[in-house]
Amino acid sequence: MNEGLLKAGDRALCISTKLGQEVLALKEVGVDKAIGIDRLSSPPLVIEGDMHNLPFDDNSFDFEFSSAFGTASFPTIFASEVRRTLKPGGILVLHLAQEPQTANYAADELGKGYPILKYFKGFEVVHMRTVTAFSFDREIVLRKSGVQGNREVGKGKCTSLESKRKILRYAEPLIMEEPLKPWITLRRNVEKFKYLPNLIDISKFQNHVYIDVGARSYRSSIGNWFMKKYPKQNQKFTIYAVEADKSFAPDYSKRKNVRFLPFAAWLKNESLVFGDAENRTVEGEIGMGRIQSRSAVENSGNNMLSSREFQTVQGFDFAEWLSKVVSLDDFVVLKIDIEGTEFDILPRLLETGAICLVDELFLECHYNRRQRTSTVRTSKFSRTYDECFSLFQALRNSGVLVHQWY
């Protein structure tokens, strides 16, 4: 408070504070309107909530503090929630560990040249310093720009965000608790979907577009689900099938109504590898598996996984491509299957604002689910159900009608 960054009458939020020590400290120096949030509540100082989906209105706080950014599952979403709830001119204080340890982002990685601003766009660095009272954490203080702007998509704006949020009132509820039998629960959940064309008139849109990322064969979802079951209000849809496995190309060559893109949706334009040696059924086959960066495979240090065991594919910046192919005047339906490092595609859509172009989203989020024949969890995916749920919540909080696909 001596530095003029916080005043007694300010509204303050402490993010991911288990017992509320930080909240209590603020109240003791006169900041009575301080509150904390964590996955479990600790009344009266801490309420229940998710750092990726803060249960507060826009521009609610003058001051926010967190020591959890370094371990956030989705740092881009964390940053977007802070940006949304902090008032213009408001102060954000982050404490980061000097050493990575269990953290995803360490102070040394984020401090040099202020790369942290790539997450907190519209902020400026007030100061950075070592705080010896907190295990030699690095303290980073940021100030949000005093001008309140709207999210941009290229030269367009998300002017319809509020109307989209109103539609979400009619959406089927998300499944909060991890299903004991997800292969049954999630499949049944499809029957509860509140499709957007059943809620609004889509004839007013200029174009109608369906994009299937990780489409596999035509009958996997385009033919058997979208063409047969999705309500189209007699509108003709332009269909894109994005599938990195080129073995499906002959199937799509027969489908004149589908534009087949034999590439991998990614964060940027770069060479990737596709495959999983552990899933091979015949020696010498590539095996169905996950998209990975070629450099990551070559530098993994695992002698059992040579880049020769993978098929090279071309990755493309999906957010950039989406912004060029469709506009806010189009009705866009996106179905996407994400696993492993592809998790970052959705946060990037949020970060760039390209998510505003998507009217309805069907998302399959892979996690370390229990196997059908035992309680042992699969080791193929490292994410948890809670992390998937946080992503769904963040998307809905951004005004996106997202459904939990199976």
Task: Describe the protein.
With 406 residues, the protein is an alpha/beta fold. It has 2 domains: 139 residues, Vaccinia Virus protein VP39 (Rossmann fold, 3-Layer(aba) Sandwich); 252 residues, no CATH class. The protein is built from 11 helices and 19 strands. The strands form 4 sheets. A 7-stranded mixed β-sheet has the order 3-2-1-4-5-7-6. A 6-stranded parallel β-sheet has the order 12-11-10-17-18-19. α2 packs parallel to α10. The longest helix is centred in the C-terminal third of the chain and has 13 residues. It is globular. The N and C termini lie far apart (50 Å).
The value of Rg in angstroms is 23 Å
* Share of helical residues: 10-25%
Strand order of the largest sheet: 3-2-1-4-5-7-6
3D shape: globular
Counting H and I runs of at least 4 residues, what is the number of helices? Answer: 11
Oligomer: single chain
State the end-to-end CA separation: 50 Å
| Most strands sheet | 7 strands, mixed
Quickly count the domains: 2
Strand content: 25-35%
The low-pLDDT segments are 106-113, 148-157, 279-288
| Helix and strand sequence | EHEEEHEHEEEEHHEHEHEEEEHEHEHEHE
Total beta strands: 19
Pfam families: DUF7870, Methyltransf_11
Domain DUF7870: 172-270, 309-406
InterPro entries: DUF7870, Methyltransf_11, SAM-dependent_MTases_sf
GO molecular function, one term: S-adenosylmethionine-dependent methyltransferase activity
